[in-house]
């Protein structure tokens, strides 16, 4: 289980993606997540389903807001040139722990501008993460899908296989 993964070295926080029930209220540690004291030894439910949400596994002792705002004021969009991760790296001062690829098959978005596609990392897959600018729904809708976008196609609400909602 992901929450039992051993993390070594010094880190301020580990960000993990878990699949929760649609209502965060029904997830047992929801109150702990919203509170200032998060118990990292909370028992997670045996069955978790629904939409994906990123949760802080351990809160950082302090947030470097001033530095983050300073960088945000630099040339427009500069902080996001490498995607959405740089703000987290700034906040946690780079003290983050990597997790095995089987928990988060990230980077599947490739690059929409260059038209590049990526393959899965070798091994088992738990979560497919189309990070980056290339989203499967945009590529499917634009008629230029990557091979892995076929995994998303059955869930594309506007695609040819989409079910017409009841009126």
From TrEMBL:
InterPro entries annotated for this entry?
Glyco_trans_8, Glycosyltrans_8_dom-fam, Nucleotide-diphossugar_trans
E.C. number: 2.4.1.-
Parts of the chain that traverse the membrane = none
Keyword check for Kinase: no
Query: What keywords are annotated for this sequence in UniProt?
Result: Glycosyltransferase, Transferase
Please state the pathway this protein functions in, per its UniProt record: Glycan metabolism; pectin biosynthesis
GO molecular-function terms, A-Z: glycosyltransferase activity
Q: Is Nucleotide-binding given among the entry's keywords? A: no
Q: Which domain of life is it from?
A: Eukaryota
- Family designation: Belongs to the glycosyltransferase 8 family.
Protein name according to UniProt? Hexosyltransferase
């Amino acid at each position: 289980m992901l929450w039992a993964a051993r993390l070594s070295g010094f880190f301020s926080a580990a960000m993990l993606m878990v699949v929760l029930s649609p209502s965060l209220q029904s997830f047992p540690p929801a109150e702990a997540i919203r509170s200032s004291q998060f118990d990292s030894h909370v028992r997670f439910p045996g069955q978790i389903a629904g939409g994906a949400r990123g949760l802080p596994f351990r809160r950082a002792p302090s947030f470097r807001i001033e530095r983050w705002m300073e960088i945000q004021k630099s040339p427009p969009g500069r902080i996001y040139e490498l995607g959405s991760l740089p703000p987290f790296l700034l906040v946690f001062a780079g003290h983050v722990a990597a997790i095995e690829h089987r928990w988060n098959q990230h980077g599947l978005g490739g690059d929409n501008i260059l038209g590049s596609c990526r393959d899965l990392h070798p091994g088992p897959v738990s979560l497919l993460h189309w990070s980056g600018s290339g989203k499967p729904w945009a590529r499917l809708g634009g008629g230029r899908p990557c091979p892995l976008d076929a995994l998303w196609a059955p869930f594309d609400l506007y695609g040819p296989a989409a079910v017409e909602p009841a009126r």
